[in-house]
């Protein structure tokens, strides 16, 4: 496995920043979705609503994650942070 960054302090800092960003996105999404939750009158409606909203946030976080991987790979190949 190839090391992206040789400097462990930069790697830990980037990891903490990304983790904080993911937490903020999750909390923000949860607050917004709970405040705009539609009225549900059946169990099927609850299951549909929860699965739809969970799927949306999972897709969004997956896109964010892969974008971060691509950006970090680009930075590593250009040797911007490893000097």
Question: What does it look like?
Answer:
With about 80 residues, this protein is mostly helical. The protein has one domain (about 10-80). Helices cover about 75% and strands about 0% of the residues. The protein has 2 helices and no strands. Helix 1 (about 10-35) packs antiparallel against helix 2 (about 45-80). It is elongated and about 55 Å long.
What distinguishing features does this structure have?
single chain, 83 residues, mainly alpha
Describe, in short, the structure shown.
With 83 residues, the chain is mainly α.
Indicate the structural class: mainly alpha
- Report the portion of residues in β strands: under 5%
Number of separate strands: 0
Q: Portion of residues in helices?
A: over 70%
**Secondary-structure element series:** HH
Principal-axes geometry comes out as: elongated
The helix count comes to 2
Low-confidence stretches: none
Q: Could you give a short account of the major beta sheet?
A: none
Average pLDDT confidence is: 83
């Amino acid at each position: 496995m190839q090391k992206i960054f040789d400097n462990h302090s930069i790697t830990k800092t980037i990891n903490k920043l990304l983790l904080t960003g993911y937490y903020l996105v999750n909390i923000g999404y949860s607050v917004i979705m709970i405040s705009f939750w539609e009225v549900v009158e059946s169990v099927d409606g609850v299951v549909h609503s929860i699965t739809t909203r969970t799927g949306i946030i999972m897709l969004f976080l997956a896109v964010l994650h892969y974008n971060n991987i691509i950006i970090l790979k680009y930075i590593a190949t250009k040797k911007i942070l490893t000097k």
